Structure formats: C-alpha cells, structure tokens
C-alpha cells in the first residue's frame, strides 16, 4: 500500500513567489487527505497533477487566514467534478461558521455533501486500516496538530514452515494467514503463530504548526515516520517566537529527536527569510536532529512499509 506526503505550501503569514501558504497533502492508496489549506493550495495540487476529487477529508489546524484562505477555492473546485462521497472537514468550532458564510456570500455552487466536524482530542477520522488523531497545541487561537496512524499489519507468512508442518497448500494457508487455527487430518492443531512472524508496525505522518514549544508534543507525535513541523524562526529570535506563540527550527528538531521520529520536514517559515536565508533554520535544526529536510513547496515524500 502506497503512502506519500506532498508539501503544497511552506510559508507562514503571507505567500511569497514560489512559496505558498502552509498545506500538506497525504495520499494513501489513492485516497487524499489535506492538512490545512493556505493560499496557493490549488495551484500546487495542479502542478503536482493531484486529483482533488479524491480528497476524503480536510483537517484544519486553526482559524488563522494563512491556514484557511485556500479552502473556499478548494470547495468550489470540487464542484467541477462528479462527486458522490461526502467531504469531511475537521477543525475548530469557528470553521463551520466560516464555511457557511463563504458559501452564502460567494453564492457557491456545491453539488456534494459537506460534513463539518468540530475537532476534539483523540481520533477524529478513520478508514480501512488507519485513523487520524488530533492533539491540542498552544497558539493565540485554539489550535490542533494531527497524526495519520496506520494500524499494525499482520506478520510475514513463512511458506517453508507450513511445508515442514505438512500443511497442504491452499485454503488452509489462507486461514492461517488470517489468524485462524486449523486442525489437520492427523489431529494436530496448528496455530497461526507457528507459521507467521510477529505483527509489524504501521506508518505514521504527523503535522504540527503554529504552537509554542512544549514537551508533550513529542508524546503526541512519537515514532512518526515523517514529522511536518513549523520552524518559523531561528534561535536568535526565540523571544519573538514565544511572543507570537510559534516555534524555532531548533525547537522543532528537539521534538523530532525526543519523539524518535525518523524524519523532520521543516515548514511554515517566516517571510522574513529569503530562500538563501532558510539555510539558517536548516543548520540549526540539523545540529539537534540530523535527519532534517528544509521542505520546499511541492516536495514529495514516499513512506515505505516497515518490514
């Protein structure tokens, strides 16, 4: 099963040439999940040839303009294609009012069902073999981070062990792989664990933006394969970061390190940094967590299965 993450926008506060406002899209075997929808989200999706019709759910972190201004366009865009499934939009309390006012004032033509769900801590969305979990952050408005977490997968099946045990190939092998126990003609009971390896971890993608640094974030995003985390300021501006309730790149790296994440993707940079100056943020983060990526718009990350 394929799992990919697309960085659609990496700027904070205001869009810049080549740097749209913050948005991340996750594709899991064809289903799309959008995290925030800043200005320019549609453009990046078009440039990456991503099919907005496949978006199952949109998760909004908080009600600041640089995280929701792309949402009305996404809603109207989805009316240009045939869609029978509802679109789930999960976010803070004000989100429903915002969407309804935009639909009314802009006289939007919407030909599909929109289900707006207030976000609460815990599982806010689930599907076949995965869930999306929300957790609170600390910002100037109610704000949430999200993790898409896959369920544990079955262990590997060992055909050679089945042959050694004299189990005829066919339906009995399938039942054992499904976790059942079987009884052979000679009366022997064969349990699944006799021919299967231990269960394997699923994958995890976490999304954190617009928050003061606090230690518990690492608990929420622990063992992430990819952690998308804001790194708005350099360490020299940590007082400014605290005042505005944002994080530095160094603090993002501390979360990645303490959560045992495998890769940190910095995003949501202050517009004060020109492209060349972003190297400051990358350097400070890598000093704490070497497997850091200075994420740019339209970067694509593939997350392989864990064997």
TrEMBL record:
Pfam family membership, one: Anti-Pycsar_Apyc1
Cofactor note: Binds 2 Zn(2+) ions.
EC number of the protein: 3.1.26.11
Binding site for Zn(2+) 2: 66-67, 210, 268
Reaction(s) catalysed (UniProt annotation): Endonucleolytic cleavage of RNA, removing extra 3' nucleotides from tRNA precursor, generating 3' termini of tRNAs. A 3'-hydroxy group is left at the tRNA terminus and a 5'-phosphoryl group is left at the trailer molecule
GO molecular function (one): zinc ion binding
Spans through the membrane: none
UniProt xrefs under SMART domains: Lactamase_B
Catalytic residues, chain numbering: 66
Swiss-Prot/TrEMBL cofactor(s): Zn(2+)
Alphabetically ordered keywords of this record: Endonuclease, Hydrolase, Metal-binding, Nuclease, tRNA processing, Zinc
Source domain of life: Bacteria
Residues that, per the record, bind Zn(2+) 1: 62, 64, 139, 210
Ranges where the Metallo-beta-lactamase domain occurs: 20-200
Entries under InterPro entries matching the protein: Metallo-B-lactamas, RibonucZ/Hydroxyglut_hydro, RNase_Z/BN
UniProt xrefs under PANTHER family: ZINC PHOSPHODIESTERASE ELAC PROTEIN 1
Subunit structure: Homodimer.
UniProt function note: Zinc phosphodiesterase, which displays some tRNA 3'-processing endonuclease activity. Probably involved in tRNA maturation, by removing a 3'-trailer from precursor tRNA.
HAMAP family from the UniProt entry: RNase_Z_BN
UniProt family annotation: Belongs to the RNase Z family.
Protein name according to UniProt: Ribonuclease Z
Protein's organism: Candidatus Ornithospirochaeta stercoravium
Gene it is expressed from: rnz
